[in-house]
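note to self — DONT lose this again. spent like an hour looking for the file last time. sequence + predicted structure for the chain T wanted, 123 res
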Amino acid sequence: MPVATYCLVALDCPDPRALAAFYAGILGGHVTNDGEDWYDLYAPGSHRIAFQRAPGLTPPDWPRADHNSQQLHLDFDVPDMETAHQLVLDLGGTPLDVDDGNGERGFRVYADPAGHPFCLCRE
């Protein structure tokens, strides 16, 4: 029997308001805040992502597995990869590995404006 229920994923970042807006641009939903150091994105489907101020954050180096490796990443299913790709770029995302072999590989990797890796995945 479980002793806990999933609540949220929290991302450290230098500007939580801006990063919450970035992900709201991708996922939709609404953003709330509890002071200037903590913002929550309530995305459709009852998903919640939080953004916590972390001055001096050093973004992970993707896809390393040593001292500055990623600790986690988010995956988002998309029905239209090209539309999602352009939206991520327009919102300030950075391509990390977007060569999906003309769709043969089912995902592309980006970094959000704070440097966290995330993937767009074909539905």
